[in-house]
Design brief:
Blueprint lengths: L6 H8 L11 E5 L5 E4 L1 H7 L3 H4 L12 H13 L3 E8 L8 E9 L9 E7 L1 H47 L3 H25 L8 E3 L1 H15 L5 E5 L7 E3 L1 H24 L11 E14 L2 E13 L27 H10 L4 E7 L2 E9 L2 H4 L4
Parallel strand pairs: 7-9
Antiparallel strand pairs: 1-2, 1-5, 3-4, 4-5, 6-8, 9-10, 10-12, 11-12
Catalytic activity: ATP + protein L-histidine = ADP + protein N-phospho-L-histidine
Protein name: Sensory histidine kinase/phosphatase NtrB
Keywords: ATP-binding, Kinase, Nitrogen fixation, Nucleotide-binding, Phosphoprotein, Transferase, Two-component regulatory system
């Protein structure tokens, strides 16, 4: 869409010498051949390269795929007017992964280079993350309501079905016929267990001060015992992470669900032969970090523990991404669709959240667990 010059662009156009390195917005100037004439300090940070290294280089050498940004530049150059796009996905070659940005491009005649344009890029990753987290929290509330309703509608008839099968078994003299009532009873019990799993534990979390690495090590050993041949489990821990106030069993279950989900993705990759012959095969990374000033929903936390499960499987199918944490949603023919829904619920009982990012060859599920006042020993 066409756009009016922003306040930043207007000031720069009026006085080219006032492109301030103190701005949080990234500013670049490229000529008609897309070669860089200038970038400010924020742009240096965004692209992971200094202005001296970047000057004169094609913009395409700084991005894994510059086609999306090139299209915005083409539109601004063709119309000789500013042009804006929101929530573009950029992946700087020297950066720290994919970024979601808002971008405005405007002709910049003051550069002394005909056809030059100025690019203003602001990071929209945080805004998108908050939007996604809000959607996840909404999913949790919707899932719990749906599960309670399903539990009531399913468990009552199952109790009657089981009782009738028991009464019928007492009336049958033929042992072979009682085998059928045994099947009915066992299947009714299995469905009740399934519903109870969806409902989660019926008690509040029994929290204690725990080194989260102890739990991850335990989960790692369990995953290694069931790992397909040739799969490597790497550990990348932050040893400075202080203890957390957690329910040991609930968090172990949540971690196991994520780890097993990752292992199943790796096994799928092995069956599809996505790993190069002679290269490194299936790989699971267990990673911990301490994050500061993190929002979980509407609440801001000064310190949060990040526990990641990263696999190099084929990735989450696009059509499942918006509903992945809903119960009974699964991409596998033999899956129940309970693992991620249960894990999200268990983590939410600790005021935390599970989020994910995925592309072919790299899927990362992150458990965010806030340190509360009781965890850190602070008085307020």
């Amino acid at each position: 869409m066409a756009a009016q010059p922003s306040n930043l662009m207007a000031s720069v156009m009026a006085d080219p010498g006032r492109i301030l390195d103190g701005l949080s917005t990234s500013v670049l100037i490229v000529d008609r051949d897309r070669s860089l004439l200038y970038l400010n300090v924020s742009a240096e940070t965004l692209f992971g390269v200094s202005r001296n290294q970047a000057r004169g280089r094609p913009l395409a050498e700084l991005l894994e795929d510059s086609a999306v940004l090139d299209a915005v530049i083409d539109r601004a150059a063709a119309t000789s007017r500013p042009f804006s796009r929101r929530e573009l996905a950029l992946r700087p070659i020297y950066g720290d992964g994919e970024l979601i940005v808002d971008c405005t491009v405007a002709p910049y005649e003051e550069s002394g280079a005909p056809g030059a344009v100025m690019i203003e890029i602001s990071d929209a990753t945080q805004h998108q993350r908050i939007t996604r987290e809000t959607a996840l929290l909404t999913q949790i509330g919707g899932s719990r309501l749906m599960i309670r309703q399903l539990a009531h509608e399913i468990k009552n008839p199952l109790g009657g079905l089981r009782g009738a099968a028991q009464l019928l078994a007492r009336q049958l003299d033929d042992a072979s016929m009682r085998e059928y009532t045994t099947v009915i009873i066992s299947e009714a019990d299995r469905l009740v267990t399934l519903v109870d799993t969806l409902l989660g534990p019926g008690h509040a979390p029994r929290k204690e001060s725990i080194n989260v690495h102890e739990l991850i090590q335990h989960v790692g050993h369990l995953l290694a015992a069931d790992a397909p041949p040739g799969v490597v489990i790497d550990r990348d821990y932050d040893p400075s992470l202080p203890p957390l106030h957690l329910d040991r069993n609930l968090i172990i279950q949540a971690m196991l669900n994520l780890g097993r989900n990752a292992m199943q993705a790796i096994a799928q990759g092995l069956s599809q032969n996505i790993y190069p012959t002679g290269g490194r095969g299936g790989r699971l990374v267990l990673r911990t970090r301490a994050l500061t000033n993190v929002n979980i929903g509407a609440r801001r936390h000064r310190l949060v523990a990040s526990v990641q499960f990263e696999d190099n499987g084929p990735g989450v199918p696009e059509h499942l991404r918006d509903t992945l944490f809903y119960p009974l949603v699964t991409g596998r023919a033999d899956g129940t669709g309970l693992g991620l829904a249960v894990a999200q619920d268990l983590v939410s009982r600790h005021d935390g959240l599970i989020e994910f990012e995925s592309r072919p060859g790299q899927t990362i599920f992150t458990i965010l667990l806030p340190f509360h006042v009781a965890d850190t020993g602070e008085t307020s």
